[in-house]
Amino acid sequence: MTTNTSSIDELIKTHNPFAGHIVVRPQQIWGKSFPDVPSINAHASNAVFDAIDKINQGQRQTVGITMTAEKGLGKSHIISRIRHQLQTRKDSLFIYMSRYDNLNQIQNQFLESVTSSLRSFSKPNVMQWQEIAASLINEGMQWKYTTEQYIDKIFPALLEKHSGKVVEQITRKILEIKPEITNTYIIQSIIWTLSKIHINAANYWLAGRELPEETAKIMGLPNITNSDKETQALNNVRQILDIVSDYRVPVICFDELDIADIADNGFTAAQIIANLAKDLYNNLDKGILLLAMYPEIWRDQINYLPNAEAVIDRLVSDKADRQPIVLKYLNSDEIVALVKTWLQEFYQKYQHTPPHPLYPFNENKLRELGKGKPTIRSVLKWCADNFNGKQPNDPPEKLPIDPHPVKPYFQSEVVHLKNSINLLLDNEQEISKALKFSFERLIGETIEGVTIEKIEDVPHDNYLDFKIIGNQQKTKIGVDVVQQSGGVGVTTALSRLIDYQKFDLTRGCLVRSKKIAPAASAAKENLRILLKEKGGEWVSLQIQDIKPLLAIFYVWENRDSYELTEEQIFEFIKQKKIAITNPLIREILSDPSGQEPTHLTDDGLPIMIPQSVENTDDIKFNL
After folding, report:
1. Is the pLDDT of residue 212 over 70?
2. Measured between alpha carbons, how far is 156 from 141 in angstroms, rounded to an integer?
3. Is 311 helix (H, G, I), strand (E, B) or coil?
4. Tell me: the pLDDT tens digits for 406-459?
5. How far is residue 144 CA from its own chain's centroid?
6. Count of C-beta atoms within a 10 Å radius of residue 609
7. Hey, is 469 helix, strand or coil?
8. Distance between CA 134 and CA 542 in Å, rounded?
9. How far apart, in Å, are the Cα atoms of 68 and each of 110, 274, 296, 311, 325?
10. Are 104 and 264 in contact (CB under 8 A)?
């Protein structure tokens, strides 16, 4: 460990552990989060842990908890603490929802959030889904194998010996002890998560997505039609949560409820989620519902619901005063503890021993911050602004020149995306919004022969994402990001892209990273028309191209939390040429090749049975 002060000073002039890290992002809820001081607002996190204990002891069945806090006080820090604490326990699991892209289809979005959460790892290389699958099989078959044994040995052996019939047989045995489950395919697909080969397909199906026909047939799973999805989603999510709650207490968290969107019924996101939470409270066998919001949302939106009294009774079910848990501002001791914890991790990472634990800060100065009403965010922001080489006795000319204010947040988002980009690659809405945002920054620019004049939404259509209008209205490119695996959805999207007359297009552009399955004949025919007859294009979606566009889009989305202006962000995009030189942007605008792109991944979900596994004749199983 280096103890030389001059060496440490050089380190802190080039590395700032606080810069770009003042807001907890959803990726950090699941992955590595910020250093935490458990004593800060411990009353909020302890309320969740106490509720789990009460449910496990049979004192409660379902508990509703709502916490409110001013912006920056640390709601997401508390949620991250709860998630990481639950990861060490075997009696609970965590479900998280923070995006509400379509308030009119909230049940389907909630199903997506539940299944996405259960895909996360409860321990190294083991998903929460797989833990539930192992528990189901052990109970139904009266076996005692670990989840790891099922994944690595037992399940591959059973598939080799009995093919997919083994899943149906195990499902029947489980249903003998769980007759209340009406959708047998949910059990079937949960069991399939134990197969390393089939796990992606199982996750897709559980999320309500369409599977390639061949994949669905081999796994014995029916595809859900689009017209049934919203109705089926709520039924499925209730059954999934009931199955989960037989083995673990589900902690279901709703975060980021401050969006301004309004549903067709006139309700805000917070009001719609409050009603959803009420419905879940009434129907769950057991579980905890945790909502985090600003005080004004509770005061001005939840309290004015038509059924406010019934909703509030369930959202704060353990509070006699029927009021949310309120997060507190930091005091001086908590500020010192927070900064000390962050710096301890920083110096350990770079193997340096500072002169004192708060170096380069002065403890008295930090304590002075506690005299106002400091939030976690404001303290971390102060530390970021006063860290790099800004020693108290340095003359001004020795202080380093501040980088662009957007840069640390952009870099932070890029780092966060490393752990989530593979999942985000299937999120058509996120990719579409990031693309549209970047194209809007290019209005007035001429790229690949197209002078961009405006970017338009496509009214009354759920498939085409947006239109690029340019060259004095002579160029009209319809763009659609299509990542789903099933043939029906791809066919429908392509049918829009080739209908130039209806949608007033001169070119259709499919953005997709996956091959289209050979068996999807209708989709293949529409693709042929797009490329060969209509002069359209298929642009390959590559991780390295979309990542910077997603990163800067997330910076823009969180600009208020980062205390950045739109002008600063737009100037950074232009200065760093994030959009104008992006290969994906340029390829969408370039002259079509008329060919399918290279570097595509398989559509989905290869199905094959392992050829070599260990002998498992000792497993007592009869088909």
Report:
1. yes
2. 17
3. helix
4. 998 999 889 888 877 877 888 888 999 999 999 999 999 999 999 999 999 987
5. 33
6. 15
7. strand
8. 35
9. 22, 14, 9, 16, 6
10. yes
Q: Is the pLDDT of residue 394 over 60?
A: no
User: Does residue 621 have a pLDDT over 60?
Assistant: no
Question: Would the pTM of this model clear 0.90, i.e. be above it?
Answer: no
* Sign (positive or negative) of CA dihedral 200, 206, 210, 212: positive
Question: Which runs of consecutive H residues, i.e. helices, occur in 67-127?
Answer: 75-86, 106-118
Pick the more confident residue, 354 or 607.
Answer: 354
Q: Which token pair is 27?
A: 């990726």
Give pLDDT tens digits for 239-276. 999 999 999 999 999 999 988 889 999 999 999 999 99
Residue 572 confidence (pLDDT) above 80? yes
Question: Helices 199-206 & 106-118, crossing angle to 10 degrees?
Answer: 150
Q: Tokens in use for 551?
A: 């990163």
Helix (H) or strand (E) holding 97: strand 92-97
β-strand partners of 477:
468, 507
Burial of 523 (0-12, 13-18, 19+ CB in 10 A): buried
Distance CA 488, CA 485 (A): 9
How much of the chain is in helix, strand and coil states, percent to nearest 5?
Answer: 50, 10, 40
3-state secondary structure of 229: helix
Quick one: 328 exposed, middle or buried, by C-beta within 10 A (0-12, 13-18, 19+)? Answer: middle
pLDDT tens string 126-164: 999 999 999 999 999 999 999 999 999 999 999 988 888
Distance CA 489, CA 16 (A): 46
> Two tokens at 537?
């294009």
Q: How many residues does the chain have?
A: 623
Does the pLDDT at position 574 exceed 80? yes
Q: Hey, is 467 helix, strand or coil?
A: strand
CA dist., res. 255 & res. 257, Å (int): 6
Helix intervals (H) in 288-443: 295-300, 308-315, 332-349, 363-369, 376-385, 407-417, 421-424, 428-440
Alpha-carbon span 78 to 31, nearest angstrom: 14
Q: Which long-range contacts (CB under 8 A, 24 or more apart) does 429-432 make?
A: 429/101, 430/550, 431/481, 431/483, 431/511, 431/541, 431/546, 431/550, 432/465, 432/466, 432/479, 432/481
User: What pLDDT sits at residue 611?
Assistant: 35
d(CA 233, CA 102): 14
Residue 325 has which token pair?
A: 């848990």
* 121 strand-pairing partners: 127
CA distance 359 to 314: 47
Alpha carbon distance 293, 295 (integer Å)? 6
**C-alpha–C-alpha distance, residues 456 and 434, integer Å:** 14
Cα(403)–Cα(385) distance, integer angstroms: 11
- Under the banding of pLDDT at 50, 70 and 90, the label for residue 395 is very low
Residue 507: strand pairing partners: 477
